[in-house]
Every structure is written in structure tokens, then in C-alpha cells.
Amino acid sequence: MKRFFALLLIAVMALSAAACGSDSDQSAPAFSNHANSEINSKEPPKEPSKEESSKAESSAPETETPKQEFIANFISIGAVDTKVNASSPNSIPLTGIETELKEGGIVLFYEDFDALKTDLTDFTVAVFEYNKIRFGYILETLYTGSADLKIEFPEDGFVLAIHSSQENYVKKVKNLTPEQTVFVHGLHLYDGADYTVEKTEKPFEIDGFVKKEGETESEWEDYLIDTVNAENPSWSYAQFEVNNYYSTANYYTAYDDEYLYLCVVVDSPYHYCPITTAKPNDMYQYECIQVKVSAENPAGDYISANFDHVANNKAVTEGVVRSYGFAVNDNGETCFYESGFTTQFTGKAACTRDDDNQTTVYEVAIPFAEFGIKPESGMSLGLTFSINSTNEADVSNGVWKNITYRDGGGVIGRNDWSKIPTITLG
User: Fold this and answer.
1) Which 3-state string (H, E, C) describes 39-88?
2) Are 180 and 294 part of one and the same domain?
3) Residue 406 belongs to a domain with what CATH number?
4) How many domains does the chain have?
5) Distance between CA atoms of 382 and 121, rounded to whole angstroms?
6) Is residue 404 part of a domain?
7) Residues near 308 by Cβ (< 8 Å), separated by ≥ 6?
8) Percentage of residues in the chain with pLDDT exceeding 70?
9) Residue closest to 343 by CA, chosen among 321, 322, 361, 359
10) Res. 55: pLDDT tops 70
11) Per the domain annotation, does 57 fall within a domain?
């Protein structure tokens, strides 16, 4: 009996040593799927006997589900801030964008839907459309896969196909409510705000006045790009009280061989900006404009690879994306700040407030030299801005609000550079 217990004790000690493993063991990768995470968390198996190996080989399937690698792009559900990433509880990682559907795949489609015209038996298909009331993408239709599934593709949105093996992510989509918006990270999903900027032969006078005294026409009149209001699908008033979208604007842009010109004329009954020229960086908390310029096309390969300044700030450190802020303070003084690889603004700015007409004018000339660019017709860049609209009552109530291009426009929230509109020099 003693001999039996001794042998049993030796066997238990041997199994315990095997279970501990070595310090070189690696945990599951951050983007592994649920099945792989479970496998990696188990104890290393014992070496099978020849008889066990033969039995396992005869009963194993001929092929295994191929492992799908996740890409940098992902979808997040709900509020978007700097803490959100692909592995967050409310995120859905992607294995591809408009790629072939495979086992284990999570693929997004927004332009070319041909790959979805196939046998979708093993896929859940979700159609998202932009909702102008919620200023975001919401789940419109959810399809359970079938061999002859007929999908109604969105005019302004995208389609997400999730393989049945990705049970956790299928569940996240099925649990979406009509009130929840989703955000696609790192994809220039909307091109409705892209436009052509015309060249001017006469430099603009940057003085904060759109129309000079005695003139009947504004020098900006032929360079109107867009009208900013809540009805325009390119603009988001998501931070405003519903149906109280009191602030609107006209937006003008032009360029010459030296400058990229920007003029924003805001029509609002409020203006509150209690900052000083010595400390202008606080302007974002009040009423001002925040501007970002990208020396690369936001829909191009460079920004696609470096869209996320939280995880990868290469676009800023290499001087590709620069940020500016412009305001007129409560004393009528023009204030500005700049940030980026270099923090010296060498351009021109003039901002004025007309309380009688309830308008604020922001005139800016940004030198191409700050980006090392020589402008040429046909060149594609990125230009975006937000209209920060936090008035005095908002500050007292702890409210911060802005008007932005759709999905933040690369300015507010995540600062996703791929959301910056593309401008093409005419």
C-alpha cells in the first residue's frame, strides 16, 4: 500500500511541474478570436501515445477553420473617445474591407458590394445607414444568412458581414438598439464633403471683413464651398439640443502659390470667448474655430496607415497633419494657436465679431511652406474645421458643444484623420 501511495505522489508532482510551464510561454494575442483565446489559456497537453494520435487523426475534420487576422480598422459602438480601441468591450474588429468573405471573417463593405452577392448561409449581415437625426450610423436592417439572401444596399452607409464562428461579435450587432450609433475607425467612409478648391490670382486681404466698406460684392463670393446647417448631411450638430440648431455658417476656401485661404462666417446670436492673446490655447472651451490641415489625402494610403493619433502619432510628428485654432476674444482681439511637429504659425489671421448682425468672421491664410508643399493643380490634401459653439450659459451648465463635419471631421472626439474631407486643388 505504501508503495502505491509513493508512486501516486510522484505522478502528481510530475503533472504539477508540467502544468506550471516556463516563463517563455506567451499569452493569446490581443486580437485573437474567442476560440483561440480559450486554447491559449489551457494547460499544455500531454504528449499523446501512438494509439491516441492514430485515433485523433481518424476522427479529426479534413480541414480546420483558417485563422483570420484583424486589421487596424474597427467599429465602435456608442460614444467615441481617446480610450476606445479595437479590443474595447463595445468594439468590433475587422478582418477586411471589401475583401473576399471567408470563415471567421468580419468584413465591411461601403462602395463595392459584389462580394456579398454569394452564398451567405454562414454569415450575419448588418446594414447601417446614416441617420440625420442622430448624426451617426445606426443599424437599419439585420439579415440572417441564407444561400439566396437579397440585401438592400444602403445609399449612405455600409454593410457588415460577420461569420457565424464569431459568435461574440454577432451578438454585439444583434443587441444594438435603434438609439445606438456606431463609428467606423480609419476609413474615409463619406466623400460628400470632398470638394475642389479654386485658385485665386489676387491674394486675399486678411482683415476680418468679408465685404469692404463701399463694396457691393465680397471678394470671397466666388469661393463659397458649403453652407453649414443641420439640414446639410455633411455637418453634425450632435452636441446641440435637438431642434435647437441656432448656429449656421458660410464656408469659403481658395489658394494661390503661397497660401491656403479659409474664411468662415458664423451666424449666431451668441459669442463668448474670455481668453487672452497671451493664453489662447483655452479657446477650444468657448466659441472659436479649430482647423486641421493634412499634407496627404485623407482617403489615401498614408492616412489609412496612420489615422489614429492615439495609437500612432506619426502623421503629427512627421509634420503631415497640423492643428490650428482661431478666435476673437471678448476684447475684440484676434487670438490663435498652433500645434504639430513645429508650433510656429507663420501665416495670417484676422477674426471679428459684429454683435448687431450676430456674425463672427474668421479669415485665415495658412502657408503651404509650413508643410513643405508646392501647390499644384490636381493635388489632393485634407482640410477640416469645427465651429466651437460653447456660449456663456453652456459654460455655466457644464456643456461643451461644437459643429463638425460628419464623424467629428478629424477634429473633435477621436481626431480620426481619415474623417478629414479631401480637397483637390483646381
Assistant:
1) HHHCCCCCCCCHHHHHHHHHHCCCCCCCCCCCCCCEEEECCCCCCCCCCC
2) no
3) 2.60.40.1190
4) 2
5) 41
6) yes
7) 72, 185, 186, 414, 416, 417
8) 84
9) 322
10) no
11) no
Report phi then psi at 56, rounded to 5.
-65, -40
Residue 389 grid coordinates: 459653439
Using an 8 Å Cβ cutoff, are 192 and 226 in contact? no
CA distance 54 to 410: 58
Same domain, 135 and 235: no
Grade residue 93 by pLDDT with cuts at 50, 70 and 90.
Answer: very high
Mean pLDDT for 365-372 is: 95
Q: How many residues does the chain have?
A: 426
Count of helices and strands (H, E) across the chain: 7, 21
**Which residues sit opposite 91 in a β-bridge?**
76
* 93 three-state secondary structure: strand
DSSP type of residue 415: -
250 and 353 share a domain?
yes
Same domain, 307 and 392: yes
pLDDT for 6-36, tens place per residue?
443 344 333 333 333 333 333 222 222 323 2
Taking residues 232-259, what's their average pLDDT? 97
Identity at 355, one-letter amino acid code: D
What CA–CA distances, in Å, run from 57 to 48, 60, 352?
12, 5, 79
Residue pLDDT, tens place only, 271-289: 999 999 999 999 999 999 9
Same structural domain, 279 and 415: yes
**Same-domain status, 155 and 202:** no
Q: What backbone torsions phi and psi does residue 3 show, to the nearest 5 degrees?
A: -65, -40
Secondary structure of residue 39 in the 3-state scheme: helix
Quickly tell me which residue has 461574440 as its cell: 168
Q: What is the DSSP letter of 388?
A: E
Q: Are residues 139 and 87 in the same domain?
A: yes
Domain housing 162: 74-185
How far apart CA 393 and CA 319 sit, in angstroms, is 37
Residue 214 CA to chain centroid, in angstroms? 45
Same domain, 132 and 205: no
